[in-house]
Amino acid sequence: MLKPSLAALVAVALIAVVAVGLPAGTAIATDTAAAAIAARKKVFDDFKNAMQAIKGVFDARGPLADVVPHAEVLSAGAARLPGLFPLESAHGDTKTRATLWDDFPAIERQFDTLGTTATTLATAGAAGDFAAAVGAFRAIAGGCKGCHDDYRL
Ligand code: HEC
């Protein structure tokens, strides 16, 4: 008598766990995805502002050291971005092409290159080397466009 009723209780408990657990798990995945999408868009928007600010420094012919904080925004963001594309964030309010996840090692290399070139830009800016700073800026801008052409909708 006792055994079947315990088994029944366990079965009911298991069903309850599955019923409550599944939607909760789905909600967590959706939250993670939405948070990652929002966070990477913020980083990219900061990139856009940084690039405009750097161009403004060049247009005004300096002071060249003013590019340094903006270049640092780029290098800090480049370090964060590889962690802001979890697989579940392929869906949602995003313009990222699904192929980005197939090519993720190449994406990591592009962000790595962006970080390195931004550091070169900061160094050139601090040193007052206009030609080197402009060269690094052009390389960065080419990297933005190249990735967008390939991986952004
Ligand atoms: C290695 C790939 C890659 C590089 C490099 C890259 N981007 Fe992007 N960018 C993306 C992807 C993918 C998206 C789409 C993000 C989304 O909607 O999930 C994006 C989105 C954006 C957006 C739109 C953000 C929004 O609010 O929707 C801006 C602005 C942007 N990038 C600027 C830049 C700038 C400026 C650079 C260079 C300094 C840059 N990106 C470098 C891949 C890249």
Explain what this protein looks like in three dimensions.
There is one protein chain. The chain has 153 residues and is an all-alpha fold. It has one domain: Four Helix Bundle (Hemerythrin (Met), subunit A) (Up-down Bundle). It is built from five helices and no strands. Helix 1 packs antiparallel against helix 2, helix 1 crosses helix 5 and helix 2 packs antiparallel against helix 4. The longest helix is centred in the first third of the chain and has 58 residues. The termini are far apart. The structure holds heme C (HEC). The site of heme C has 24 residues, from helix 1, helix 4 and helix 5.
Summarize the structure.
This protein is mainly α. 80% of the residues lie in helices and 0% in strands.
Number of domains: 1
How many DSSP-defined strands? 0
- Provide the CATH top-level class: Mainly Alpha
The CATH architecture is Up-down Bundle
User: What structural class do helix, strand and pairing data support?
Assistant: mainly alpha
Nearest-integer average pLDDT: 89
Q: Helix content range of the residues, please?
A: over 70%
Instruction: Tell me the fraction of residues in β-strands, as a range.
Output: under 5%
Mind telling me the CATH superfamily name? Cytochrome c/b562
Distance between the termini: 63 Å
Indicate the CATH topology.
Four Helix Bundle (Hemerythrin (Met), subunit A)
> What is the CA-based Rg, rounded?
23 Å
Query: What hetero molecules are in the model?
Result: heme C
